[in-house]
Amino acid sequence: MKKVISTIMLIISVCVLVGAFLFYQFQDDKLLALKSHMSLIAFKGKIEYTDSDEEAKRLKEEKKRLEKEEKERLKAEAEAKKEEEKKKKEEEIRLAAEKKQQEEAKKKEEEQAKKNPPKSVLLDIPVVSQLPELKNGCEITSLTMMLNYNNISVDKMTLADKVKKDTTPITYNGSSIGSWGNPNVGFVGDITGKSPGYSIYPEPLKPLVEEYMPGKSLILNGVDYSDIEKVLADKRPVVVWVTVDFKPPTRQAQWVSNGENITVNLSQHAVLLTGYDENNVYYNDPLDNSKNKSVSKENFKAIWQTMGKHALSYYK
Description:
Layout: H1 2-37, E1 39-43, E2 46-50, H2 52-115, E3 121-122, H3 138-149, H4 156-162, E4 165-166, E5 171-173, E6 176-179, E7 187-188, H5 202-212, E8 217-219, H6 225-233, E9 238-243, E10 252-257, E11 260-265, E12 268-276, E13 280-285, E14 290-296, H7 297-306, E15 311-314
């Protein structure tokens, strides 16, 4: 009986020991579970264990650092853009000042040239013949040369079609002209020469110049000869009303146009002045298709004045 009781007590002791072992083993498992609840973070192969508070703090600091870096980056970009705009503005100001300086220098040179024109000028202007189409079209053909010199591609026939015309018909008193058109209004008569035709003066040519050179037509009627030289010195040709070969006019005529008395020289001719020197004036003649013909200054002045000192050019 004692032996049985001893055996039972032994079994109970073993069970108690096993139970205790299992209890402590369970507690260890709980500890391990708690450990596994901690965050496992890997940085470049290094493994660290941190609790949730430390991780939250680290993430907050990391976010703050990234926000700071982004703010600094945006600030740097804004400053760089501002600096670039500043440099661009400074460059624009510099270029504007440089342009203004160049314009002022050019203006000063031009003013100086006007005060002291060069002793000689000769422009290279291609000659255009008025013949055979425009027997009476010396003014239009001279104007064509002037426009062509300014790189305006237009021909004499186009200008002849567009030019203002005074269509008042010609009438006669015996062998003399009784009434006809007014050259201050438009071209008088037939510009082609198929029937009687006379001329046109600078004023009615102005709209035609304005069509191709807006705001630049320059009427020089009645100016001094020195003003003509100043225009030529500025490399601008001048259409002038003179006579054929600068011979003294011999064919004077008078008629009435809309109640106004018109007095003219029928030997009138228009040419394009291209230059001058100490003694001569040079011109392109549309009648004989000659380039840079010469006439003495004295002869030019005399004939030009006799024919009314009409002249036409342009502003630059």
